[in-house]
UniProtKB/TrEMBL annotation:
Belongs to the sigma-70 factor family. ECF subfamily. It comes from Actinomadura harenae. Interacts transiently with the RNA polymerase catalytic core formed by RpoA, RpoB, RpoC and RpoZ (2 alpha, 1 beta, 1 beta' and 1 omega subunit) to form the RNA polymerase holoenzyme that can initiate transcription. Keywords: Sigma factor, Transcription, Transcription regulation. Residues 11-74 form the RNA polymerase sigma-70 region domain. CDD domains: Sigma70_r4. Pfam families: Sigma70_r2, Sigma70_r4_2, SnoaL_2. GO terms for biological process: DNA-templated transcription initiation. This is RNA polymerase sigma-70 factor.
């Protein structure tokens, strides 16, 4: 006599897909986790006899919960203090890479570009280009005609293609430059930092009004290097150590104090130099950097 193998819970089975969808739509680890909690509650209240395709049902639920939250979040971001950057996510193999599919599509640069799309464009792009859902499936998720979804998908794809920065993807080159950048910044060597920055480098820092950060983007190697080195030289920064970590699918630099990350630097690499540098220091946005 054989015993039937128990069927796993579809929510648990598809959690990586659901989290990856919510995170890419919202750019926030905390909001994505909240959406998954709400989706789990809705799933447990649902009449399973009416659910023909659990995966599609759950993705639709998460998509619509995320769209509702994204629409309200945009109004809040209009009054945000300083530049708004997405929440970073630690994507080392032992942690968040297990929570997201296609880590190369979750880079900080990509999330910043996705932020320029409308909520519906963002949803259609993520569902189509990242997770490969058909236009017909997406039409069911967002309650729009398939023809309309096709138009939105084309518009969003062209928008992203035009705005996505060109960058080097050689991991060894990135590792070497990251280590040189970290050493120069920690050593207070402004000239060495400047040598690693592209002539048209821009630095965005997100403190959210909670910690010290530049209220406007900084432009040029001199301004960026002096601000970074000056920040590390302040008394409040005493005891900070810098270490490399894979963040949003790319090697970046964590600033650690007392065993916990207090900021993270991610950047685009072009022609062997740092092109766009993004520093996230808002303590409310560092949940995705916890290692345990």
């Amino acid at each position: 006599m054989t015993t039937a193998k128990p069927i796993g819970d579809p929510f648990t089975e598809h959690r990586r897909l659901l989290f990856g969808t919510a995170y890419r739509l919202l750019g926030s680890v905390a909001d994505a986790e909240d959406v998954l909690q709400d989706a789990w509650l809705a799933w447990n209240k649902a009449d399973r006899s009416d659910v023909g395709n659990a995966r599609a049902y759950l993705v639709r639920t998460v998509t619509n919960l995320s769209l509702n939250r994204l629409t309200s979040a945009r109004a809040t971001r209009e009054s945000y203090v300083g530049p708004w950057l997405p929440e970073p996510l630690l994507t080392e193999p032992d942690r968040a890479a297990e929570e997201t599919e296609s880590a190369d599509t979750v880079s900080t640069a990509m999330l910043v570009v996705l932020e320029t799309l409308s909520p519906v464009e963002r949803a259609v792009f993520v569902l189509r280009e990242v997770f490969g859902f058909s236009h017909a499936e997406i039409a069911g998720f967002v309650d729009r005609p398939e023809a309309s979804v096709r138009q939105v998908a084309h518009r969003a794809r062209e928008h992203v293609r035009a705005r996505r920065p060109r960058f080097d993807d050689d991991p060894e080159r990135r590792r070497v430059l990251t280590e040189r950048f970290m050493e120069a910044a920690a050593g207070g060597d402004i000239n060495a930092v400047m040598e690693l920055l592209a002539p048209d480098v821009t630095c965005w820092s997100d403190g959210g009004g909670k910690v010290t950060a530049a209220r406007r983007p900084l432009h040029g190697p001199d301004h960026v290097a002096r601000w970074l080195v000056g920040t590390l030289a302040k008394p409040v920064s005493a005891g900070i150590t810098l270490e490399t970590a894979t963040v949003n699918g790319e090697l970046g630099v964590l600033a650690v104090l007392g065993g916990r990350p207090i900021s993270v630097v991610t950047f685009d690499l072009l022609d062997g130099r740092i092109q766009n540098l993004r520093l996230q220091a808002n303590p409310d946005k560092l949940i995705g950097l916890r290692r345990g």
